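It is worth pausing here to work through a concrete case rather than discussing structure prediction in the abstract. The textbook approach is simple: state the sequence, then state the predicted structure, then interpret. We follow exactly that order.
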Amino acid sequence: MEELDFDEWIKNYQPVKPKYFAKFQPADGSIVGVYPETALEDKSNTIEIDDETAVLVYEGKLQLNSCFIDIDSGSFQIAEVKVLSKIDDVLHRIIDKQWSVSDDEDLFVTVSVNDKKMQIELSEKYNGTKASDKKSKRKIHWDGSTVMTFLITDYNDPNIIFDVIKIKIDDLIGKSMSMPINELPEKFSIYTKRIFPRYVLEVK
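Step two, the predicted structure:
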């Protein structure tokens, strides 16, 4: 039997950190439980999470219904009221439909030049009104009071702003919204700080 120097062993001992996993519903990404690895008999539909998050759940400081798995990216997310400065500090220009390579947009902006109106719609997959080839519905994981801001600017120049359109996510559930535009130049761009991954613009 091999002999060990106990003092040397204890000096070099590194405790094994427990691993924690969140178990989720594959249909919508909702979390059904958080477990240490030793308590899991089946690891299907689970994702490893950090121990700090697990402790917050166990202490009741983080509710399971505030967590979800983003099915697209496979990442663990915590839902919250998304203040725009928390979402993305970068302004993104909404791409014109003719240049879009995606067939799975999340939010649609249609500008009627003659009427000077902007129509905003969510995809059906987010319980919006825009038809989608993706039949599975996805749960909105942001608080409905989250405000989205759209800047109507000079073409490719977000520093020259002609109008600002604001709308809540709740306003797009089950319906589209048409908003008047106060000033619309002949050539313009629309910028936003993204909440959803894919936006598209159509000008009519």
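Step three, interpretation. Residues 20 and 36 are 4 Å apart (CA to CA). The chain is about 10% helix and 35% strand.
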